[in-house]
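As noted in the main text, all predictions were made from sequence alone. Below is one such record, for HECT domain-containing protein.
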Amino acid sequence: MSALCTDLQSPQLPLFIKCANAVSGIGDNRDKFVPRPSASSPELLDMFFFIGQLMGVAMRTQNLLSLDFPSLVWKSLIGIELDEEDLKATDYSCWSSLQFRDEDGQAIGANKFEELFQYTFMTVLTDGKCVPLFEGGEETRVTFERRHEYAELVKQARLRESKEQLSKMRDGLCSIVPSSMLCLMTHEELERRVCGIPEIDIATLKRHTRYRGSFSADSPHIQMFWEVLEGFSQEDRRLFIRFAWGRERLPLESDYSEHSSMKLFPSDRGDGDSVLPEAETCFFIVKLPKYRTKELMKENLLAAITACREINY
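Prediction:
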């Protein structure tokens, strides 16, 4: 599933695009994707419908999707009205420009406005397309008196730029999950139900791990393994979960089952220090050699999780 989500969000498919903060390098959500406003052909809209269906299936089966969407997307899927904070969270530069302040953060008066803001009633969408805010807007100067009208039009245009795509995603989601159920959720809860918890908590993973063969929770080798994982960054922890399970997030605490619990087995290939760990992602199984030192354990785990990013069969 992680490979599928990576493909859906890749430039090779014209469906999603990094939010503007990723391009400008400022603000929040620089790792998040939003629907591409220009992806409006019937074929592409059908794909957005299918993505919504995948979300519904993920909710029903706990087969989580590693989708990286900002709150703007999740709010739209449950019908919450978007506001200025959602624009700020995805395009800080655009939001900041609509505050009409100088470099010192002071409000700009009428005399300085014409000098600093040479705007017409146009805006640039996330995919770089310039669009007029109304017919003839490209030829209409923004005056000091009309600055608030301009700011409101830009805000609405930007927040609604992917309305068609998000509507299709919601339709697909509601074909699997009743819309009446979505109305009872917050946007944060919907994201957790579809994607799980983005932070990999090792204590939670440890609590839901089963030991097989000669392994037990008290084995020195197993304790070394947990110490290594504790020292991993969040990115390396996600790579480990992807290596072991084909996903990048853990389920909610209430959704754990035997299927979603990690199983640790002794290695089939022996315990040499040069033997890499193996995984069977369909069953969340990791086959772990016994290494002589913690440093060797870390080195071999990192080698395995960075080299083997695709699903193992």
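The chain has two domains: 1-196, 202-307. Strands lie at 16-18, 33-35, 122-124, 130-132, 209-211, 262-266, 278-280, 285-288. These features were considered when defining construct boundaries for the mutagenesis experiments described in Section 2.9.
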